[in-house]
Amino acid sequence: MRFHDRLTAFRGERPWEALAIGEVDGVTVRVHWTDKPYRWHVNDGAEAFIVLAGAVDMHWRDGSGEHVRRLEAGDSCFAEIGDEHVAHPVGEARILVVERKGSA
Questions:
Q1: Could you read off the pLDDT of 13-45 as tens digits, one per residue?
Q2: What are phi and psi of 82, to 5 degrees?
Q3: Which of 47, 56, 63, 94 could form a disulfide with 79 if both were Cys (CB 3.0 to 4.6 A apart)?
Q4: For residues 36 and 44, is the Cβ–Cβ distance under 8 A?
Q5: Domain span at 63
Q6: 2, part of any domain
Q7: What contacts 96, CB < 8 A, 6 or more positions away?
Q8: CA dist 45 to 48, 64, 72, Å?
Q9: Which helix (H) or strand (E) segment is 58 a member of?
């Protein structure tokens, strides 16, 4: 049994540093800390993205163009395989990410 206290206080030494919570059947569960945007990318597996603390502007592209939605603490989004997206934190944010191990 492992416990992780105060995940909303986790702070990495670099943007998008992760604290591994565990792995379930090839799926990783991690908390990321960041104060900088990630990069535009397309995951090769589905991804659940839950904001634990702070706010994140989630940008995504589809056939109708580029979109942005602000996610506050307690909000989530689910990226399907092939969804092009990038997360831009508003200040510092802590995000719970659940995705296939090794997902790009």
A1: 999 999 999 999 999 999 999 999 999 999 889
A2: 95, -10
A3: 47
A4: no
A5: 7-100
A6: no
A7: 7, 21, 29, 30, 31, 48, 49, 50, 51, 52
A8: 10, 22, 24
A9: strand 55-62
**pTM for this predicted structure:** 0.93
Within a domain: 42: yes
Vertex 92 angle, CA 29 and 34, to 5°: 45
Is residue 12 one of the residues assigned to a domain?
yes
**Which CATH number do you get for residue 60?**
2.60.120.10
- Alpha-carbon gap, residue 22 to 93, rounded angstroms: 20
Residue 1 lies in a domain: no
Q: How many domains does the chain have?
A: 1
Q: Please give the structure tokens belonging to residue 100.
A: 């296939």
Asked whether 55 and 12 are in contact (CB, 8 A), the reply is no
